[in-house]
């Protein structure tokens, strides 16, 4: 097996169980690994440190194990079983009210580069590393063993997420079976899932608890759901008794799915209207009529080079919302950009509040749900940040 030898002192991060080895920490490589190969990591004095997937780039090794063990069928079955047991503890497995959840959340479940979401009897597999992509068939077999007859299909949606330079020629396809439906429940609310064409794996499961929290703030409210995607927040707002809900997204497909999801839960005679337009432009022209506004934009920054522009975008959209919201209004505002820290995001919203010259109080500080766990050794895994603000 290929050996990765670390520079003097660079083993400290591994000792703290951080799951990444950066290329700058490597002294030399004994062997010629291909991207996605399993390699072992050693200190400069020859002591074993970790085992992981090799990749080309800044993150050179994504660690799978800190003990010297084979990365074989038993390894994958045990790791996936651990993830499954945690979701059982969370009450998400075999839950009649909520039939969709995240089974594997990358580093948070000790499987860097792997996402698996469950939609009823369907699993959507998404690899963010070459190593995980190469293991897709074996992982699919493990899922079949764990779920048995409750799993009817496994869909690989990795074409857009695996490293382009790895030359994997990845294409989305079913690894096993075929789906029997595309509807799920979330706290009793129905949603149509498009895992083939939708963003991420088809639905933003990470906002489940935050959507539920929104419901209690919407009684008789005029609600604006910006960047609505498939209308998750809109459905909960209507469920909470909103007087009127406006949903806005630049994607016609997303807005169409929003309309379908609203109709699925409330029929066609409901106080809801959806708009296909740029969110910033809509907000700029919006009347000061809304009691509740939700800002859940896509990641404005996917790498540190885009951080400054992202913070400016967060400040701009939050300024518009804080300026226009009714007195006594509630603003739900989020960032899903991993490179935007909780402190940076809060600073951007603070700047927006100061510009708006409104008195603003923080009611809740939000994050991702428990099925999107964060390894205590990998704080970078806390990507979703949210604030609920009361605006006087």
Termini separation: 63 Å
List unreliable stretches of 5+ residues: none
Instruction: Give the helix proportion (percent range).
Output: 25-40%
Tally of contiguous helical segments: 10
Q: If classified by CATH, what would the architecture of the largest domain be?
A: 3-Layer(aba) Sandwich
Strand tally, please? 20
- What is the multimeric organization of the chains shown? single chain
Query: What structural category characterises the helix and strand content?
Result: alpha/beta
- N-to-C SSE string, H for helix and E for strand: EHEEEEEHEEEHHEEEEHEHEHEHEHEHEE
Main sheet characteristics = 7 strands, mixed
Total of domains: 3
* C-alpha Rg (nearest Å): 22 Å
Name of the CATH class of the largest domain:
Alpha Beta
Sheet with most strands: strand arrangement: 16-15-14-17-18-20-19
* Average of pLDDT: 95
| Spatial shape | globular
Short note summarizing the structure:
This protein is an alpha/beta fold and 392 residues long. It is 28% helix and 27% strand. The chain has three domains: 3-65, PUA domain (Archaeosine Trna-guanine Transglycosylase, Chain: A, domain 4); 73-184, RNA methyltransferase domain (HRMD) like (Transcription Regulator spoIIAA, 2-Layer Sandwich), CATH 3.30.750.80; 204-391, Rossmann fold (3-Layer(aba) Sandwich).
